[in-house]
Protein backbone atom coordinates (compact mmCIF):
# COMPACT_ATOMS: atom_id res chain seq x y z
CA UNK A 1 0.00 0.00 0.00
CA UNK A 2 1.37 3.42 -1.00
CA UNK A 3 1.34 6.40 1.35
CA UNK A 4 -0.64 9.55 0.58
CA UNK A 5 2.64 11.40 -0.06
CA UNK A 6 3.73 8.78 -2.58
CA UNK A 7 0.36 8.99 -4.33
CA UNK A 8 0.55 12.80 -4.49
CA UNK A 9 4.04 12.61 -5.95
CA UNK A 10 2.85 10.22 -8.68
CA UNK A 11 0.02 12.65 -9.49
CA UNK A 12 2.41 15.58 -9.87
CA UNK A 13 1.97 17.23 -6.49
CA UNK A 14 -0.89 18.55 -4.36
CA UNK A 15 -2.18 21.08 -6.90
CA UNK A 16 -2.23 18.54 -9.72
CA UNK A 17 -3.96 15.99 -7.48
CA UNK A 18 -6.58 18.55 -6.51
CA UNK A 19 -7.24 19.32 -10.18
CA UNK A 20 -7.48 15.61 -11.10
CA UNK A 21 -10.01 14.97 -8.31
CA UNK A 22 -11.97 18.19 -8.63
CA UNK A 23 -11.24 19.36 -5.07
CA UNK A 24 -9.37 22.23 -3.45
CA UNK A 25 -5.93 22.03 -1.89
CA UNK A 26 -7.61 22.14 1.53
CA UNK A 27 -9.00 18.67 0.79
CA UNK A 28 -5.49 17.44 -0.06
CA UNK A 29 -4.27 18.82 3.25
CA UNK A 30 -6.94 16.75 5.00
CA UNK A 31 -5.84 13.64 3.07
CA UNK A 32 -2.33 14.16 4.39
CA UNK A 33 -3.60 14.75 7.91
CA UNK A 34 -5.76 11.62 7.88
CA UNK A 35 -3.16 9.61 5.90
CA UNK A 36 -5.92 8.23 3.68
CA UNK A 37 -7.86 9.12 0.54
CA UNK A 38 -11.69 9.12 0.67
CA UNK A 39 -13.20 6.32 -1.45
CA UNK A 40 -15.15 8.73 -3.67
CA UNK A 41 -11.83 9.94 -5.13
CA UNK A 42 -10.33 6.50 -5.83
CA UNK A 43 -11.44 6.34 -9.50
CA UNK A 44 -9.76 9.68 -10.29
CA UNK A 45 -6.59 8.69 -8.43
CA UNK A 46 -6.41 5.31 -10.16
CA UNK A 47 -6.93 6.92 -13.56
CA UNK A 48 -4.20 9.49 -12.91
CA UNK A 49 -1.60 7.08 -11.49
CA UNK A 50 -2.35 3.70 -13.10
CA UNK A 51 -1.96 2.03 -9.70
CA UNK A 52 -3.97 -1.04 -8.67
CA UNK A 53 -6.70 -0.52 -6.07
CA UNK A 54 -4.77 -2.35 -3.35
CA UNK A 55 -2.06 0.33 -3.48
CA UNK A 56 -4.37 3.12 -2.31
CA UNK A 57 -4.09 4.25 1.34
CA UNK A 58 -7.49 3.60 2.86
CA UNK A 59 -6.69 3.61 6.57
CA UNK A 60 -3.79 5.21 8.44
CA UNK A 61 -0.68 3.02 8.08
CA UNK A 62 -0.20 2.87 11.86
CA UNK A 63 -3.71 1.49 12.35
CA UNK A 64 -4.27 -2.14 13.23
CA UNK A 65 -7.46 -2.10 11.20
CA UNK A 66 -7.91 -4.26 8.13
CA UNK A 67 -6.56 -2.09 5.30
CA UNK A 68 -8.93 -3.68 2.83
CA UNK A 69 -11.86 -1.85 4.42
CA UNK A 70 -12.26 1.94 4.08
CA UNK A 71 -12.50 4.00 7.24
CA UNK A 72 -16.20 4.59 7.86
CA UNK A 73 -17.62 8.06 7.53
CA UNK A 74 -18.28 9.86 10.82
CA UNK A 75 -21.60 9.13 12.45
CA UNK A 76 -23.97 12.09 12.59
CA UNK A 77 -25.26 11.31 16.06
CA UNK A 78 -26.87 13.88 18.28
CA UNK A 79 -24.78 15.35 21.08
CA UNK A 80 -24.74 13.32 24.30
CA UNK A 81 -23.68 15.90 26.86
CA UNK A 82 -25.42 15.07 30.16
CA UNK A 83 -27.87 17.53 31.63
CA UNK A 84 -31.32 18.96 30.99
CA UNK A 85 -30.40 20.05 27.48
CA UNK A 86 -28.81 16.77 26.47
CA UNK A 87 -29.88 15.61 23.02
CA UNK A 88 -31.17 12.06 22.60
CA UNK A 89 -28.28 9.76 21.69
CA UNK A 90 -28.77 7.41 18.77
CA UNK A 91 -26.99 5.89 15.83
CA UNK A 92 -27.80 7.77 12.63
CA UNK A 93 -29.48 4.72 11.10
CA UNK A 94 -31.48 3.72 14.18
CA UNK A 95 -35.22 3.20 13.66
CA UNK A 96 -36.07 3.40 17.34
CA UNK A 97 -37.05 6.91 18.32
CA UNK A 98 -34.78 7.95 21.23
CA UNK A 99 -36.43 9.26 24.36
CA UNK A 100 -37.01 13.00 24.08
CA UNK A 101 -36.51 13.17 20.31
CA UNK A 102 -39.00 15.51 18.64
CA UNK A 103 -37.26 15.97 15.28
CA UNK A 104 -35.24 14.04 12.76
CA UNK A 105 -33.31 14.61 9.57
CA UNK A 106 -33.67 11.70 7.15
CA UNK A 107 -31.11 11.60 4.32
CA UNK A 108 -31.57 10.15 0.88
CA UNK A 109 -29.35 7.16 1.73
CA UNK A 110 -31.67 6.22 4.60
CA UNK A 111 -29.63 7.57 7.50
CA UNK A 112 -31.60 9.20 10.30
CA UNK A 113 -30.29 11.95 12.57
CA UNK A 114 -32.29 12.50 15.75
CA UNK A 115 -32.60 15.70 17.74
CA UNK A 116 -34.92 18.22 19.32
CA UNK A 117 -37.38 20.13 17.18
CA UNK A 118 -38.04 23.85 17.23
CA UNK A 119 -39.79 26.33 15.00
CA UNK A 120 -42.79 25.15 13.02
CA UNK A 121 -44.06 21.58 13.28
CA UNK A 122 -44.14 19.65 10.04
CA UNK A 123 -41.73 18.36 7.40
CA UNK A 124 -39.88 19.71 4.38
CA UNK A 125 -37.87 17.86 1.71
CA UNK A 126 -34.96 19.31 -0.25
CA UNK A 127 -31.19 19.44 -0.59
CA UNK A 128 -29.15 19.51 2.63
CA UNK A 129 -26.33 22.07 2.45
CA UNK A 130 -24.11 23.85 4.96
CA UNK A 131 -23.35 27.53 5.57
CA UNK A 132 -20.15 28.67 7.31
CA UNK A 133 -21.24 32.21 8.17
CA UNK A 134 -20.89 33.30 11.80
CA UNK A 135 -23.55 36.02 11.56
CA UNK A 136 -26.70 36.85 9.64
CA UNK A 137 -28.80 33.71 10.07
CA UNK A 138 -32.00 35.70 9.50
CA UNK A 139 -30.69 37.13 6.21
CA UNK A 140 -29.56 33.64 5.21
CA UNK A 141 -32.93 32.02 5.89
CA UNK A 142 -34.75 34.70 3.85
CA UNK A 143 -32.29 34.70 0.94
CA UNK A 144 -34.35 33.49 -2.07
CA UNK A 145 -31.26 31.65 -3.37
CA UNK A 146 -31.85 29.05 -0.61
CA UNK A 147 -35.15 27.89 -2.09
CA UNK A 148 -35.22 24.09 -2.12
CA UNK A 149 -32.55 23.75 0.59
CA UNK A 150 -32.27 22.73 4.23
CA UNK A 151 -29.43 24.71 5.82
CA UNK A 152 -26.91 23.23 8.25
CA UNK A 153 -25.28 26.07 10.18
CA UNK A 154 -21.68 25.26 11.08
CA UNK A 155 -21.59 28.12 13.61
CA UNK A 156 -22.92 26.54 16.83
CA UNK A 157 -24.77 29.53 18.36
CA UNK A 158 -27.85 30.34 16.30
CA UNK A 159 -30.63 32.53 17.69
CA UNK A 160 -28.53 34.58 20.08
CA UNK A 161 -29.41 37.91 18.42
CA UNK A 162 -33.09 37.06 17.98
CA UNK A 163 -35.03 38.32 14.99
CA UNK A 164 -36.42 41.63 13.79
CA UNK A 165 -38.39 43.10 10.91
CA UNK A 166 -35.39 44.76 9.21
CA UNK A 167 -32.86 41.96 8.67
CA UNK A 168 -34.72 40.12 5.95
CA UNK A 169 -33.83 39.65 2.30
CA UNK A 170 -37.36 38.85 1.14
CA UNK A 171 -40.92 39.02 2.42
CA UNK A 172 -41.04 35.28 3.08
CA UNK A 173 -38.36 32.77 4.04
CA UNK A 174 -37.09 30.78 1.08
CA UNK A 175 -35.11 28.10 2.93
CA UNK A 176 -36.94 24.91 3.91
CA UNK A 177 -35.54 24.45 7.41
CA UNK A 178 -32.39 24.56 9.51
CA UNK A 179 -30.08 22.18 11.33
CA UNK A 180 -28.09 23.43 14.34
CA UNK A 181 -25.89 22.07 17.08
CA UNK A 182 -27.05 23.92 20.20
CA UNK A 183 -30.54 24.79 21.37
CA UNK A 184 -31.76 28.24 20.39
CA UNK A 185 -30.83 30.82 23.01
CA UNK A 186 -32.76 33.80 24.27
CA UNK A 187 -32.08 36.91 22.16
CA UNK A 188 -29.47 39.29 23.56
CA UNK A 189 -29.37 42.14 21.04
CA UNK A 190 -30.90 45.59 21.33
CA UNK A 191 -32.46 45.31 17.84
CA UNK A 192 -34.27 42.02 18.55
CA UNK A 193 -38.05 42.22 18.58
CA UNK A 194 -38.85 38.51 18.87
CA UNK A 195 -37.36 35.11 19.63
CA UNK A 196 -36.03 33.21 16.61
CA UNK A 197 -38.27 30.25 17.45
CA UNK A 198 -41.35 32.47 17.20
CA UNK A 199 -40.06 33.98 13.94
CA UNK A 200 -39.49 30.52 12.46
CA UNK A 201 -43.02 29.44 13.37
CA UNK A 202 -44.44 32.52 11.65
CA UNK A 203 -42.60 31.53 8.46
CA UNK A 204 -43.43 27.83 8.65
CA UNK A 205 -39.80 26.74 9.04
CA UNK A 206 -38.97 23.58 11.05
CA UNK A 207 -35.63 23.19 12.81
CA UNK A 208 -33.63 20.47 14.54
CA UNK A 209 -31.03 21.02 17.28
CA UNK A 210 -28.65 18.68 19.08
CA UNK A 211 -27.05 17.54 15.82
CA UNK A 212 -23.36 16.87 15.29
CA UNK A 213 -23.17 19.51 12.57
CA UNK A 214 -19.43 18.97 12.10
CA UNK A 215 -20.00 15.36 11.06
CA UNK A 216 -22.87 16.35 8.78
CA UNK A 217 -20.69 19.04 7.19
CA UNK A 218 -17.89 16.54 6.60
CA UNK A 219 -20.33 14.20 4.89
CA UNK A 220 -21.56 16.99 2.59
CA UNK A 221 -18.00 18.13 1.90
CA UNK A 222 -16.78 14.67 0.97
CA UNK A 223 -19.85 13.08 -0.62
CA UNK A 224 -21.78 16.07 -1.96
CA UNK A 225 -25.04 17.63 -0.81
CA UNK A 226 -27.62 14.87 -0.13
CA UNK A 227 -31.37 14.95 -0.39
CA UNK A 228 -33.09 15.07 2.97
CA UNK A 229 -36.33 15.46 4.89
CA UNK A 230 -36.41 17.56 8.05
CA UNK A 231 -39.34 16.58 10.26
CA UNK A 232 -40.44 18.28 13.49
CA UNK A 233 -43.02 16.17 15.32
CA UNK A 234 -43.71 17.51 18.85
CA UNK A 235 -45.46 14.23 19.75
CA UNK A 236 -42.35 12.21 18.86
CA UNK A 237 -44.18 10.07 16.28
CA UNK A 238 -42.36 9.55 12.96
CA UNK A 239 -43.24 7.49 9.88
CA UNK A 240 -39.65 6.61 8.98
CA UNK A 241 -40.41 4.43 5.91
CA UNK A 242 -42.42 7.28 4.39
CA UNK A 243 -39.75 9.86 5.26
CA UNK A 244 -37.01 7.67 3.75
CA UNK A 245 -39.04 7.21 0.58
CA UNK A 246 -39.65 10.95 0.32
CA UNK A 247 -35.96 11.77 0.79
CA UNK A 248 -34.83 9.16 -1.73
CA UNK A 249 -37.45 10.19 -4.27
CA UNK A 250 -36.79 13.93 -4.31
CA UNK A 251 -35.39 14.74 -7.78
CA UNK A 252 -32.66 17.16 -6.69
CA UNK A 253 -31.88 20.72 -7.77
CA UNK A 254 -30.24 19.78 -11.06
CA UNK A 255 -32.70 20.57 -13.84
CA UNK A 256 -35.01 22.45 -11.47
CA UNK A 257 -36.17 26.00 -12.27
CA UNK A 258 -36.95 27.75 -8.97
CA UNK A 259 -36.59 31.38 -10.07
CA UNK A 260 -40.25 31.60 -11.08
CA UNK A 261 -41.26 30.53 -7.56
CA UNK A 262 -39.38 33.33 -5.77
CA UNK A 263 -39.58 36.12 -8.36
CA UNK A 264 -42.00 39.02 -8.22
CA UNK A 265 -45.03 38.77 -10.48
CA UNK A 266 -45.37 42.46 -11.40
CA UNK A 267 -42.80 45.26 -11.97
CA UNK A 268 -42.24 47.67 -9.07
CA UNK A 269 -40.01 50.60 -8.11
CA UNK A 270 -37.31 50.40 -5.43
CA UNK A 271 -35.67 53.41 -3.73
CA UNK A 272 -34.59 52.08 -0.31
CA UNK A 273 -30.82 52.47 0.23
CA UNK A 274 -28.37 51.14 2.81
CA UNK A 275 -28.92 50.96 6.57
CA UNK A 276 -26.97 53.12 9.01
CA UNK A 277 -26.78 52.93 12.78
CA UNK A 278 -29.35 55.10 14.48
CA UNK A 279 -31.05 56.11 11.24
CA UNK A 280 -32.23 52.88 9.63
CA UNK A 281 -32.58 52.58 5.87
CA UNK A 282 -32.00 55.66 3.71
CA UNK A 283 -33.95 56.65 0.58
CA UNK A 284 -32.54 57.49 -2.85
CA UNK A 285 -34.11 60.85 -3.71
CA UNK A 286 -31.74 62.03 -6.46
CA UNK A 287 -30.85 59.06 -8.72
CA UNK A 288 -28.45 59.51 -11.62
CA UNK A 289 -29.02 56.25 -13.49
CA UNK A 290 -32.06 54.18 -14.46
CA UNK A 291 -31.59 50.47 -13.84
CA UNK A 292 -33.89 47.56 -14.54
CA UNK A 293 -33.23 44.68 -12.12
CA UNK A 294 -34.41 41.28 -13.35
CA UNK A 295 -35.66 39.42 -10.28
CA UNK A 296 -34.58 35.77 -10.34
CA UNK A 297 -34.75 35.83 -6.52
CA UNK A 298 -33.21 39.22 -5.74
CA UNK A 299 -31.98 39.99 -2.24
CA UNK A 300 -33.17 43.31 -0.86
CA UNK A 301 -29.65 44.38 0.06
CA UNK A 302 -28.56 44.08 -3.57
CA UNK A 303 -31.36 46.47 -4.54
CA UNK A 304 -30.33 48.74 -1.66
CA UNK A 305 -26.74 48.79 -2.90
CA UNK A 306 -27.91 49.76 -6.39
CA UNK A 307 -30.03 52.58 -4.94
CA UNK A 308 -27.18 53.69 -2.70
CA UNK A 309 -24.89 53.88 -5.76
CA UNK A 310 -27.26 56.40 -7.34
CA UNK A 311 -29.69 54.20 -9.26
CA UNK A 312 -33.42 54.49 -9.82
CA UNK A 313 -34.35 50.82 -9.72
CA UNK A 314 -37.27 49.15 -11.48
CA UNK A 315 -37.63 45.46 -10.61
CA UNK A 316 -39.19 43.14 -13.20
CA UNK A 317 -40.16 39.44 -13.04
CA UNK A 318 -37.74 36.68 -13.99
CA UNK A 319 -39.80 35.89 -17.07
CA UNK A 320 -39.63 39.44 -18.49
CA UNK A 321 -38.69 39.53 -22.17
CA UNK A 322 -36.06 41.81 -23.65
CA UNK A 323 -38.84 44.02 -24.99
CA UNK A 324 -40.42 44.30 -21.54
CA UNK A 325 -37.07 45.16 -19.98
CA UNK A 326 -36.10 47.74 -22.59
CA UNK A 327 -39.54 49.34 -22.47
CA UNK A 328 -38.41 51.05 -19.23
CA UNK A 329 -35.58 52.76 -21.16
CA UNK A 330 -32.86 51.76 -18.68
CA UNK A 331 -29.28 53.01 -18.66
CA UNK A 332 -28.25 49.53 -17.53
CA UNK A 333 -29.68 46.12 -16.67
CA UNK A 334 -28.94 44.13 -13.52
CA UNK A 335 -29.32 40.32 -13.37
CA UNK A 336 -30.04 39.18 -9.82
CA UNK A 337 -29.16 36.18 -7.72
CA UNK A 338 -31.60 33.30 -7.38
CA UNK A 339 -32.07 29.57 -6.74
CA UNK A 340 -32.12 26.44 -8.87
CA UNK A 341 -30.34 25.22 -11.98
CA UNK A 342 -29.26 28.07 -14.30
CA UNK A 343 -29.66 25.84 -17.34
CA UNK A 344 -33.34 25.36 -16.51
CA UNK A 345 -33.96 29.07 -15.81
CA UNK A 346 -32.00 29.89 -18.94
CA UNK A 347 -34.76 28.48 -21.13
CA UNK A 348 -36.57 31.82 -20.84
CA UNK A 349 -33.87 34.06 -19.31
CA UNK A 350 -31.15 33.60 -21.95
CA UNK A 351 -33.19 34.95 -24.91
CA UNK A 352 -34.11 38.03 -22.85
CA UNK A 353 -30.50 38.65 -21.80
CA UNK A 354 -29.27 38.27 -25.38
CA UNK A 355 -31.83 40.85 -26.47
CA UNK A 356 -30.55 43.27 -23.84
CA UNK A 357 -26.93 42.68 -24.91
CA UNK A 358 -27.83 43.29 -28.55
CA UNK A 359 -29.38 46.61 -27.52
CA UNK A 360 -25.99 47.69 -26.16
CA UNK A 361 -27.09 48.18 -22.56
CA UNK A 362 -24.46 47.69 -19.80
CA UNK A 363 -25.18 44.47 -17.90
CA UNK A 364 -24.12 43.46 -14.38
CA UNK A 365 -24.94 40.03 -12.94
CA UNK A 366 -24.58 38.43 -9.51
CA UNK A 367 -24.75 34.72 -8.60
CA UNK A 368 -27.51 33.15 -10.74
CA UNK A 369 -27.37 36.33 -12.84
CA UNK A 370 -23.66 35.62 -13.42
CA UNK A 371 -24.42 32.09 -14.57
CA UNK A 372 -27.26 33.24 -16.83
CA UNK A 373 -25.05 35.91 -18.41
CA UNK A 374 -22.45 33.23 -19.12
CA UNK A 375 -25.10 31.04 -20.75
CA UNK A 376 -26.31 33.98 -22.85
CA UNK A 377 -22.73 34.55 -24.04
CA UNK A 378 -22.43 30.89 -25.11
CA UNK A 379 -20.86 29.19 -22.07
CA UNK A 380 -22.08 26.25 -19.98
CA UNK A 381 -22.70 25.65 -16.28
CA UNK A 382 -22.39 22.60 -14.03
CA UNK A 383 -23.42 21.55 -10.52
CA UNK A 384 -20.83 21.72 -7.77
CA UNK A 385 -20.56 18.76 -5.39
CA UNK A 386 -20.94 20.85 -2.25
CA UNK A 387 -21.34 24.47 -3.33
CA UNK A 388 -20.03 27.63 -1.68
CA UNK A 389 -22.11 29.03 1.16
CA UNK A 390 -20.82 31.40 3.80
CA UNK A 391 -19.32 34.81 4.46
CA UNK A 392 -15.63 33.87 4.46
CA UNK A 393 -14.84 32.83 0.88
CA UNK A 394 -11.53 34.10 -0.63
CA UNK A 395 -11.69 35.23 -4.27
CA UNK A 396 -8.81 36.55 -6.39
CA UNK A 397 -9.27 39.41 -8.84
CA UNK A 398 -7.01 38.35 -11.73
CA UNK A 399 -6.63 41.90 -13.06
CA UNK A 400 -5.33 43.42 -9.82
CA UNK A 401 -4.08 40.36 -7.93
CA UNK A 402 -6.14 41.51 -4.98
CA UNK A 403 -7.82 38.90 -2.79
CA UNK A 404 -11.27 39.76 -1.47
CA UNK A 405 -13.11 37.90 1.28
CA UNK A 406 -16.61 37.41 -0.03
CA UNK A 407 -20.09 36.24 0.85
CA UNK A 408 -21.34 33.38 -1.31
CA UNK A 409 -24.33 31.11 -1.80
CA UNK A 410 -24.38 28.93 -4.90
CA UNK A 411 -24.46 25.27 -5.90
CA UNK A 412 -23.74 25.70 -9.62
CA UNK A 413 -20.78 27.28 -11.42
CA UNK A 414 -19.70 28.49 -14.86
CA UNK A 415 -17.50 26.08 -16.82
CA UNK A 416 -14.31 28.03 -17.64
CA UNK A 417 -13.48 25.74 -20.54
CA UNK A 418 -16.75 26.59 -22.26
CA UNK A 419 -16.26 30.38 -22.33
CA UNK A 420 -16.19 31.65 -25.92
CA UNK A 421 -13.57 34.04 -27.37
CA UNK A 422 -14.06 37.59 -26.17
CA UNK A 423 -15.25 36.51 -22.71
CA UNK A 424 -12.53 36.70 -20.06
CA UNK A 425 -12.22 35.16 -16.60
CA UNK A 426 -11.92 37.98 -14.06
CA UNK A 427 -12.15 36.23 -10.68
CA UNK A 428 -11.38 32.75 -9.31
CA UNK A 429 -12.12 30.97 -6.05
CA UNK A 430 -9.08 30.33 -3.88
CA UNK A 431 -10.90 27.39 -2.29
CA UNK A 432 -11.28 25.21 -5.38
CA UNK A 433 -10.25 27.30 -8.41
CA UNK A 434 -13.80 27.52 -9.78
CA UNK A 435 -14.98 30.53 -11.76
CA UNK A 436 -16.05 33.59 -9.76
CA UNK A 437 -16.35 36.26 -12.45
CA UNK A 438 -16.40 37.02 -16.18
CA UNK A 439 -16.40 40.07 -18.42
CA UNK A 440 -17.20 40.74 -22.07
CA UNK A 441 -15.90 44.18 -23.05
CA UNK A 442 -17.48 44.16 -26.50
CA UNK A 443 -20.92 43.70 -24.90
CA UNK A 444 -20.22 45.98 -21.91
CA UNK A 445 -21.17 43.14 -19.56
CA UNK A 446 -19.61 41.69 -16.44
CA UNK A 447 -20.70 39.46 -13.58
CA UNK A 448 -19.49 37.80 -10.39
CA UNK A 449 -20.46 34.54 -8.75
CA UNK A 450 -20.26 35.91 -5.22
CA UNK A 451 -22.37 38.51 -3.38
CA UNK A 452 -20.74 41.96 -3.29
CA UNK A 453 -23.67 43.36 -1.28
CA UNK A 454 -22.43 41.03 1.50
CA UNK A 455 -25.43 40.67 3.71
CA UNK A 456 -24.26 39.01 5.81
CA UNK A 457 -20.53 39.23 5.24
CA UNK A 458 -17.58 41.53 4.52
CA UNK A 459 -17.90 44.59 2.30
CA UNK A 460 -14.68 44.06 0.31
CA UNK A 461 -16.57 43.99 -3.01
CA UNK A 462 -19.00 46.92 -2.72
CA UNK A 463 -16.92 48.71 -5.37
CA UNK A 464 -18.50 46.56 -8.08
CA UNK A 465 -21.75 48.53 -7.86
CA UNK A 466 -19.78 51.68 -8.64
CA UNK A 467 -18.08 49.90 -11.52
CA UNK A 468 -21.56 49.31 -12.92
CA UNK A 469 -22.61 52.95 -12.49
CA UNK A 470 -19.33 54.00 -14.10
CA UNK A 471 -20.20 51.96 -17.19
CA UNK A 472 -23.61 53.63 -17.37
CA UNK A 473 -22.09 57.09 -16.89
CA UNK A 474 -19.73 56.43 -19.81
CA UNK A 475 -22.79 56.11 -22.08
Task: Name the average pLDDT.
Answer: 90
CATH superfamily of the largest domain: Class I glutamine amidotransferase (GATase) domain
CATH class of the largest domain: Alpha Beta
Q: Indicate the proportion of strand residues.
A: 25-35%
Domain module count = 3
Reported for the largest beta sheet, the result is: 10 strands, mixed
Distance between the termini: 64 Å
The stretches of 5 or more residues where confidence is low (pLDDT under 50) are 61-76, 78-93
How many individual β-strands? 19
- The Cα radius of gyration reads 23 Å
CATH topology name of the largest domain, in short, is Rossmann fold
Count the helices. How many? 14
Backbone shape: globular
Q: Helix/strand/pairing class, anyone?
A: alpha/beta
- As a percent range, the share of helical residues equals 25-40%
In which order are the strands of the major sheet placed? 8-12-11-13-14-19-18-17-15-16
Specify the CATH architecture of the largest domain: 3-Layer(aba) Sandwich
Architecture overview:
The protein folds into 3 domains: 4-51, no CATH class; 103-252, Carbamoyl-phosphate synthase small subunit, N-terminal domain (Glucose Oxidase, domain 1, 3-Layer(bba) Sandwich), CATH 3.50.30.20; 259-474, Rossmann fold (3-Layer(aba) Sandwich), CATH 3.40.50. 25% of the residues lie in helices and 25% in strands. It has 14 helices and 19 strands. The radius of gyration is 23 Å and the shape is globular. 50% of the residues are buried.
